[in-house]
Amino acid sequence: MTTTREPLVGVRDKRIVLISHDLSQTGSPLLLIETAIALRKAGAIVRVVTLASDAQKDNLAARSEFEVLPVADSFAQCAQADLVVANTAEAGSWVDAYLRQCPAGARSLIWWIHEIDAWSYAGRMQSLGEVAFVLFDSYASLRNWTSSGVATLPAARVIHPCVDAAFVERAARSRFAFPREGILGTLPFKMATYGRAAVRRKLGIEPDDYVVTMIGTYLPQKGHDLFADTIARLADEKPSLAVKMIVVGFETPSKRKQFMARLNRAARKALGHRRAVRVVRDLTPYYAATDAFVMNSQGLGRTSGE
Questions:
Q1: Which residues contact 50 (CB under 8 A, 6 or more apart)?
Q2: Can you give the pLDDT at residue 54?
Q3: For the chain, what are the domain ranges?
Q4: Residue of 217, 227, 207, 201 whose CA lies nearest to 294
Q5: By the 8 A CB rule, do 170 and 193 touch?
Q6: Which residue from 69, 143, 181, 297 has the least number of CB within 10 angstroms?
Q7: How far is 289 from 287, CA to CA, in rounded Å?
Q8: How crowded is the C-beta side of 46, counted as CA atoms within 13 Å?
Q9: CATH of range 9-158; options 1.20.810.10, 1.10.10.60, 3.40.50.2000, 3.30.420.10
Q10: Residue 185 above 50 pLDDT?
Q11: Of residues 291 and 148, which shows the higher confidence score?
């Protein structure tokens, strides 16, 4: 009788350190923590490092009970690890510094690159050709990096991240914290929690509405304006279609105001002020309220939302 080999059987008891540029609830950090969970289930000893100042008590890694190491300790920990994964091109300066201090660490270093706009990183990817392995999320991304001239790639592979059915079922039963409105939102009370339907009501979403969401720091090149224009055109062409949108990621009130001011009537109706959301750390209620996501693509092949 033949047996099927477990895909991660080789990581049991291995020490693995995952380097994330931050711990926000956006595409690449979420993928990294999902990977950390799978590695831990397979028996690996997993540690996480964040390169941003966001290692708060309830950060993304801590919610899944992963120890978050300070950046100051990361080189020593990685030098002793069996495997190190640097997440996103934004980790470039960390990779450069780590390999200067510990050149032998290149043999156990994987770089997982989600960005497709290779040309944007030409000046800060000096160590790309030195690592043991590079992962990409799409063949289009691999082609861009191969043809960019940024560096000679080592061994590379394309993977296709996904969310499994068990996660979707668990999310449907979950409750999510949602900020109180007005002056109550400034008081130090513990936030109440709500199911998906209640969160949608608080955001002005009707039961039959189909909600499309884009999450990421608002920048013109990230496609927020194109997203709003597309939903507005869809609403205009099909008035009977109950479509609404959520846009999360305005760093300042002025940027939010500028974005809202340029919207036409159909776009403003589909968005509304309650669903144009500032940069927030806890994105779970907005994910929960959503039916479909628009991922920032920056060109063909980008798979993680920003």
A1: 20, 21, 22, 23, 59, 61, 68, 71
A2: 66
A3: 9-158, 166-293
A4: 227
A5: no
A6: 181
A7: 6
A8: 24
A9: 3.40.50.2000
A10: no
A11: 291
